[in-house]
Amino acid sequence: MRLRVDRVQFYYEARKVLDEICFEAGEGEFIGLIGPNGSGKTTLLKIIDGILKPRIGSVYLDCKHISKLDPRELAKELAMVPQTADLSFDLKVFDVVMMGRYPYLGRFSFEREIDEEKVRFWMRLTNTLHLAERSIKEVSGGERQRVLIARALAQEPRILLLDEPTSNLDVCYQIEIMNLLKELVERLGLTILCAIHDLNLAARYSDKIILINDGKIKSIGKPVEVLTKENLRDVFKIEAKIEYDRGSGSLTIIPIKTVAPEFEKSKRSIFSKALRKR
Amino acid sequence: MSGGSQEILEVELRGIGLLKRRLLRWKAILTYLTIGLCLTIIAATAIGPVYIPPAEIISIIWHKLGLRVGGFSEPHMKIILQLRLPRIFLGVLVGMALSVAGAIMQGLFRNPLAGPYVLGVSSGASLGAALSITFLPAVMGVYTTPLAAFMGGLTAIFLVYNIVKLCGRFAVESLLLAGIAVTYLFSATLSIIIWTLSRDAHTILLWIMGGLWGADWLKVEVIAPIILLLMFITFIFSKDLNALLLGEETAQSIGVNVKFVEKLLPILASLMTSAAVSFAGAIGFIGLMMPHIMRMLVGPDHRILIPSSALAGGIFLVWADAAARCLLELPVGVITALTGTPFFIYLLRRKKP
Questions:
Q1: E strands within A3-55?
Q2: What residues of chain B, 96 to 135, have a C-beta less than 8 Å from chain A?
Q3: pTM of the predicted model over 0.95
Q4: ipTM score
């Protein structure tokens, strides 16, 4: 399965959110998508998933235009784990994961034994089977995230899109989820495109990193090629120390200070005013 | 959870499949509700100014089906066949339509306050009825007002969709807001008519409060196919409604044609509501309350929620109407509202913050 994003442009009203986005993803690749807040990561994921339509440019799956595919067929190839899911109704965890079987069911058919087997398989793999009978509203943040991943995997996609799956999770769950994703890539040949806030996680788990800034791809390549001091300064406005860690075999990024001279100057004057008043 | 207990749980789960267990549960729920509906129909037929024992009712029904079991009196047969049964069947259909429409709207808007009247159907129908009571001679006999009410309901749906279209991008939220706008517009017009023009304010108000007076078999025959067909069509979309509980984007992502479902289902639900309201008036609360009760009892899966809401709505309205008949022919809408309000307070108390 090959995913190709070809010169995608997207606008919200008149504001340009994505500009000339071009990249490819091959089978068994773990691609990290990084960039500051509002740089267009979520929008890009939604476009690839077919939820939003780009104004210009297109997304191809194995050379097929995704808008030419039936939504159900697309759902069998591509699955998305959204950052926020409004779960206001008392659905059971099992039923939430079972929703992933929707594209495989006819309009008049109920879920079959085989669907239950598959759902159990993915729930076991994501360590959520023991939650099956609980309400989705009752489970913890980490459990809910794993349930949503299980739901996406129940679609049996070849490409999995995730929007910051580790935000709001404590460190143990972060590693647990990232390890699971890595194993899906290595053992099942899944392609993963994952928006991540945490640069260290991105550096450690990604085969390839895409750095987006202001809707444009600033840099794309191996973690060492993308996570450079210059890029971090230009895009994230930070001075950082970048080291190679032998233990984990990956880069570690230690932010030192922000590079925002205007703000630093005004902050200093505000502080000094406050001091004078005392 | 420790590894050991998890294993035990898994074995337990494997014993009988969750799907199979769910199916058994659904079958049991529908069986109980169907039996409940049958018993309700017989019990409600017995109740009235003249008490008719259930045994006699059953032999009358057998008699109509061509079998002779037990005896009965001719006048009792007339009361049952011409007065009570059509009224009860009309009640079943109206109760079904309102609570199914409510369940669909609540699921679609993911809003507990949504009900069958969100698109302004009740105010449209009320306005239509008021106009016909005030201005129209009874060209179609007793069917003039229902027809005008139905047209009023359709006008409301039409207006709501055109307002949304006028505003550009389609979204369910704008449907909700346009519905509120249309409701207020029609209510205001209705007030003007009642205040200035109509000498039949009493009749209009009685109609608005809703009741099953003047039911006959023809009315039942007219709305039964409309309501049952629409209910079946919406039932086909229950898996899509389930997916929408996870949010629009997730639903779209798993292959649901969200825009289509969100445009079509409110129309179907409102048509169902219009048909019910045109013969029974704007009976309140049932479409809001029944889906909530059933969601608590059977869960939010629309494949069981829609049929069980239908059956429970039918049962509830028939009992409410039986109470109304016994209490000096009060409008049944008054009974549903009076029983609905305490229930709503109970719901609010129960809801965890």
A1: 3-12, 15-25, 30-34
A2: 110
A3: no
A4: 0.87
